[in-house]
Amino acid sequence: MEFLDPGNICGRTLLRLVSRGSAIVAELFRLSDHVPGVFKDKIDPQRPRFKELVFDFTYLKMPEKFEARINSDEELLELDHEFRESYSALVERFYLLFESISKYVDDYNKFVEDLKSGFYIEHSIEGLLVDRDGQQLLSEALYLYGVMLFLLERRIGGPVREKMIVCYIRCKGEGALVNVENVIKLCKTTLYVHKQPPH
């Protein structure tokens, strides 16, 4: 049976994974062009206005302290409501993107583990690396994850990701989020700093 035959579960699973990876990369490109200025450190007219409502991961260490400060100030509370109304839908799309990257690597790792454990009776990693289609798809799936990580770091910097995740957690509540720990680990600020080359 050919690797990409409709009846080949292993081939279909890997093909779906690669297809999903390509869709995630496309969504990453789409969304990264629409990062609201309020989450960036660059000058934005809304940034000073909402400055006291945009937090990085330090918020997660003591959320009660941050929320108490907001709740004790009527003006800040009103501004918080406006902030959530303005940005919650877009921030949710970003969070779902981050979550889909996290799920993607989990599914890739599960696929490899299933191959090793013999779940796909006729297939092994060695067998896939001999098959032309299997070889391409297995390496493409891993390559796509690398592309996701690179683009995530390059187009949506760590501080921006942290602020968006905290905003999403504040809007939804941490208890309502299933995969939040993995998303936090994935999106935590790294030491990578992208510098534009001089023109």
TrEMBL record:
<dbReference type="GO" id="GO:0071203">
    <property type="term" value="C:WASH complex"/>
</dbReference>
<protein>
    <submittedName>
        <fullName>Uncharacterized protein</fullName>
    </submittedName>
</protein>
<dbReference type="GO" id="GO:0007032">
    <property type="term" value="P:endosome organization"/>
</dbReference>
<dbReference type="Pfam" id="PF10266">
    <property type="entry name" value="Strumpellin"/>
</dbReference>
<dbReference type="GO" id="GO:0030041">
    <property type="term" value="P:actin filament polymerization"/>
</dbReference>
<dbReference type="InterPro" id="IPR019393">
    <property type="entry name" value="WASH_strumpellin"/>
</dbReference>
<dbReference type="GO" id="GO:0005768">
    <property type="term" value="C:endosome"/>
</dbReference>
<dbReference type="GO" id="GO:0051125">
    <property type="term" value="P:regulation of actin nucleation"/>
</dbReference>
<dbReference type="GO" id="GO:0140285">
    <property type="term" value="P:endosome fission"/>
</dbReference>
<comment type="similarity">
    <text>Belongs to the strumpellin family.</text>
</comment>
